[in-house]
Write a structure and sequence with these properties.
By secondary structure, the chain is α/β, with parallel strands linked by helices. The chain is about 30% helix and about 20% strand. The longest helix has 16 residues.
Length: about 650
Amino acid sequence: MNLTQKLIQSHLVSGEMIAGQEISIKIDQTLTQDSTGTMAYLQFEAMGIPTVKTEKSVAYIDHNTLQTGFENADDHKYIQTVASKHGIYFSKPGNGICHQVHLERFGKPGKTLLGSDSHTPTGGGIGMLAIGAGGLDVAVAMGGGAYFLAMPKVCKVELTGKLSPWVTAKDVILEVLRRLSVKGGVGKVMEYTGEGVKTLSVPQRATITNMGAELGATTSVFPSDEVTLAFLKAQGREEDWIELSADADAVYDECVTIALDEIEPLVACPHSPDNIKKVSEITGMAVDQVAIGSCTNSSYTDMMTVAALLKGKTVHPDVSLVIAPGSKQVMNMLAANGALADIISAGARILECGCGPCIGMGQAPATKAVSLRTINRNFEGRSGTKSAQVYIVSPETAVASAVAGVLTDPRTLGEAPQVSMPEHFLINDNLVIPPAADGQSVKVVRGPNIQPFPKNVKMPNEISGKTLIKVEDNITTDHIMPSNAKLLPFRSNVPYLADYCLTPCDPKFPARAKAAGGGFIIAGQNYGQGSSREHAALAPLQLGVKGVLAKSFARIHMANLINNGILPLIFVNEWDYDNLALGDELTIAYAPDQIKGAARGELVMVTNVKTGEEIPTRLNISERQRDILLAGGLLNYTKQMN
Ligand code: MIC
Ligand code: SF4
């Protein structure tokens, strides 16, 4: 067996391990972050389960740490109290980015982790089966329910040789993205093997598994070996280690070989992580802002490299350099060993340990500015400035460019600094609050920002409505439900957020949807790529959206639509996408019968009322998902079952 199959088999609750078929797995650990967490905990509370049934569940505060009003602070209080009540560990704001902290302090090889954040696969860097999902799926897992997914195909990524100086793990995953694109991983687990694996440290592996999310992959995983052991030992967690690898004769569905020594410093150009060029091809471009951090590149070794490169230098006068270390552990160690002083002396602006600029929480670039970032997503407008040009690079390229003022190939800097993994990380978990011993006595604090979330109803016999918007390929959840410093504070207030739904594509969409009393969204390929935010389904639900007709869907978003009772219909013929126009009236007659047929592989016919034309569509759903759709979403379905 390959490693993915071993991890799935040891957690399999139902289904057969045949690619594409629905399986369910037991979840050992969960994580939430604050911007998806409020909703996940409201849903967990609605389930009425007193204490989580997982081995470890952690609630992190890392996204909404910019407290521009009472909203974020209120949400933090709600999450802290609800966590304490229900047996969940609480990682306070300032403790760091969920994925970085979880890797350092809680993740365990061989365990499953379900997180309400699309970059949860970071845990694959230490041999976890770590998957991102919508908040509702995480709530169910906290309550002891299995997690349902389509059995993925397993793609072997064979690493040969070793990286040249100045070439980094970020360049490896950018190379994978160059080859496979943002749709290349859909329905797959990327499993890393080969002699090159042992040359990569845990943080490097985690950078690669983290950005597997950008491939659309279900997750990515590395073996757990002596490198993993050394990392866990340095974290004082030697006993959490087990050895894990694929069998020598393991079989894979697909195979890609990456020769590490042939990779050069790469850059993802605006506005997609797969728009890859060599740094050397566009070197010399003037740079306005450089942001180093995010869950992809904010480890201790990343930051020590940054510090070594900044020591004795000054940031270019025309560049703003901002740095957010990934965790309190990293920040503490930089402070203790003097590296922080080197960073500060060079003129970098230090941000607190959190997501910050990556999700547009501050540091929006100037109009049309060029911003180099070590993040994982450069979707248009995500930085907070629509006209900004965001390029994704490694920390090495970022620092070289921040000092030079222009995009710089770090290989021109001479000898690369040698940064080694510490033998002992500085361990101090005082920002992690354990749950109350007696949860019953804890009073959950709910501020006025916490509003009820929309709930769907049982599927009617006929589903009809107008086409409300027509969008192109690769629409991200950042388009569907934008997140920035102005909107993130309202993640527990869906009625407010709904007024911004899909506005980057068409500012009139919310008003049109409300006036029409709801209807359908028409979309191209890979609709809903990017984040796990359930709000990209909840906001359309609030506006009365009943279905999305698309050429294809991204995995997590499709699950979120189904969980909220919205139909993710797939065009059989691409020309039907071309023929549909805004304002067309669509009807699905005998909807429940047609949905039942769809679970058996039959087509769902959508009628264009004006032309009388029948549009054949598919619904890739299991019998369970059929029942969820018929019930009007997962919460109604769960209630029906109890
Ligand atoms: C992201 O990177 O887009 C986020 C913000 O972390 C999201 C979660 C969210 O929208 O709250 C993700 O990746 O799932
Ligand atoms: Fe936070 Fe950015 Fe990572 Fe999302 S991708 S978890 S916003 S650091």
